[in-house]
Amino acid sequence: MTRKPWLTSTIVSTLCFGVWGAFIDAPDRAGFPATLSYVVWALTMVPCALFALRLTGWTLARERRSVWLGAVIGFLGAGGQVLLFEALRLGPAYLIFPIVSLSPVVTILLSRLLLGERAGARGWTGIALALAAIPLLSYQPPGPSTASGPLWLVLALIVFVAWGVQAYYLKPANERMTSESIFFYMMVTGLLLAPVTVWMTDFSQPINWGPRGPWLAALIQSLNAVGALCLVYAFRHGKAIIVSPLINAVAPVITVLLSLLLYRVVPHPVVATGMVVAVVAMVLIALEPEAPAQAVTERHA
């Protein structure tokens, strides 16, 4: 059997993101705002980044282009999260999440056009099914409208593009420097944006500073940090056109299954359909024959 190192990293990342998604709103429900959970997440990135650097003998890429690539990846990811907070404040979540969830479309287009990544018939079928499953898994029944003008749509589209471009850049960045260096710069940019989310927090409302607040958030956000680190490793070994849609399609399946077991939340028929489609996509992509990695040209870097 052909070894697929990218698949191992992808599975770990998917599991972390899936479990994280099932518990992410627990601190918020207990009175600890999501904006402050972002700060906690940025802090949990620090030990993961230091652990990763230790594996490389504390070697960090310091060339100008490497720093630039790491900063771009970090700001696109963390900045997209900050904009998502504002989009959700202004607009309906049931429309925003399906838009944002389709960011792998951007990744696939860029990777196909600029990196020349290819897949076989089985792989492309899996990719297509994964893309179809993502908005289904993000479906939320319409509720009372909280939309405030068209700004929420603009912000959602910006996040959609930002996260798609971020995933694309992970591939050429891994060709230029170590994954550990990439993650280090992701950690730095996440910390740099933390004051923004503190400023966005409504401190006039009661905030839970107890164990179910920042401490529970730290435990949950650690999964997000580990998942992000494994995501970088997955892009180092695997194709962006496969890794990105696979993680975005399968992680919500794990989230829904955990919610069903823990909270007895029965998934909406649309979500259940997305789960079936995502599982089929995962099997097809996992069975895609491994192809020799293609070199990234100078213009791609």
Overview of the molecule:
This protein is mostly helical and 301 residues long. The protein has one domain. 75% of the residues lie in helices and 0% in strands. It is built from 13 helices and no strands.
Report the oligomer. Answer: single chain
The secondary structure category is: mainly alpha
Number of strands: 0
CA gyration radius, whole angstroms: 19 Å
Write the layout of secondary structure elements.
Blueprint: H1 5-23, H2 26-29, H3 34-55, H4 64-90, H5 93-101, H6 104-114, H7 121-137, H8 151-176, H9 179-192, H10 194-200, H11 211-237, H12 240-263, H13 269-286
Helix pairs in contact: 1-11, 1-12, 3-9, 3-10, 3-11, 4-8, 4-9, 5-7, 5-8, 6-8, 6-12, 7-12, 7-13, 8-11, 9-11, 12-13
